[in-house]
Amino acid sequence: MTGSPENGVVTEIACDESGSDGENLTGGNTDVFAHASVRLPQETAAEYVREIRRRIRSPAEEYKANHLLREKHRAVMESFLGPAGPLRDGNAHVHLTEKTYFVVDRVVGLLLGGAAEGLDAAALFREGPRTFGERGWRDFLTASNRLLRVRNDGAPTAPADVFFRTVDSLRDAYAATAAGVIVGRLAAARSRAKSYRERLRDSPVLFPLLNPLLPAIVGTARYWTADGRRVRLVHDRQNMLTPERVAWIMDAAPLTEVELVAARSDARVQLADFLAGIARKLASDELNGRGDPALTALLRPYLGTDSVWGDAASGPRLGTVEVNSAVRRAC
User: Fold this and answer.
1) Whole-number Å distance between alpha carbons of 1 and 3
2) pLDDT, tens digit, for every residue of 55-79?
3) Degrees (nearest 5) of the Cα angle 232, 236, 239?
4) pLDDT tens-digit series, residues 149-186
5) Which of 43, 73, 212, 325 is the most buried (most CB within 10 A)?
6) What is the dihedral of CA 210, 237, 56, 44, to 10 degrees?
7) Is the pTM of the predicted complex or chain greater than 0.85?
8) Taking the C-alpha atoms of 126, 130, 133 and 134 in order, what is their torsion angle to the nearest 10 degrees?
9) What is the bridge-based pairing of β-strands 92-98 and 230-236?
C-alpha cells in the first residue's frame, strides 16, 4: 500500500539484509554489510519472484541472491537491476556498511567524541594502513573490535588491556605521523574505555555498538519517511530485533509499525533479500578492486548516500559517501 503524506495512507516497505557476522566485523566471512528495502505491491513482487524462478529453473525451494549471482544467470540479474526491472523508479534503497570503517568510526566515536570525531575516523582509516603497515593495521582493527564487542573472552579487563597495549605501541612507533597522533589520543582515553566495559558488565546492552543492523534499519526508515510519509516496515525475522529494539526504532524513525516475518512468506522480502545479497557482493568486489563496471552501474541507483563507507577508491564508483553523523550516532 502506498500513498502521499497528504492522504495519510501508510506505505509498506519490505526489508532484508546480507553479510551479517554479528559483532565480529574484522574476522568474519564478509567485509560488507548490506540492508535493502523495496516498495512494491505484494502481487507485483510475487509475479517477479515467479518470473525469476521460471528463468533460473533451480529445484531449490527458496531462492537466494546466490542464484542470481551465478555467471550463467547474469542476464537474470541484469534484468532484475536494470531500468525495466521491478525496483527502478524509486522502488528500492540499499544502505551499505563497510565493516572495517564502521569499527574505526565506532572506536573513535566512543573514545574521542566531539565535533571532529568523524574527521578523526576518516583520517585514521585513510592513513592507518599505509602508516602502520598491514600487520599493525590488522592488530589495531582486531583490538578495537574486541574492545567494543559485548561478549568478553577471558578476564574482564582483557579487551581494554589488549587495546591499550596495541595503541601504545603504535603511538610510540609512529608518533610523528598523522595516524600516530590520533592513536595517541585514543591511548589517552583509558577512563572512557573502562567506563564502557563496566557498563557492558553491569547491565544488558540494548544497542551493541558493533552490530550494523540497527543503524542500517534506522537509516533505511529515515530514507523512506524523509518526505513525511507514514511508513510500516516489514522485515525479515532477526534475533537482534527484540521488542525493545523495535520500539526504539519505531520512535527514532518514526514508523507506524514494524512487522517481523519469515522471508519465504513475503515475496517483497524475498526481493529485498535478492537485492541485499547482490549489493553486498558487488560492493565487496569494488572494495577489493575486482568490480564489474557494468554491474556496478546497474547497482548504483539503489545505493544510499548515507552508507557507512570510508574507502576513497571504491566510494566514488559506488556513489556512496561517509554516513551523516546524526544517523551514525542514532544508536
Assistant:
1) 7
2) 999 888 888 999 999 999 999 999 9
3) 110
4) 998 777 778 999 999 999 999 999 999 999 999 999 99
5) 212
6) -120
7) yes
8) 60
9) unpaired
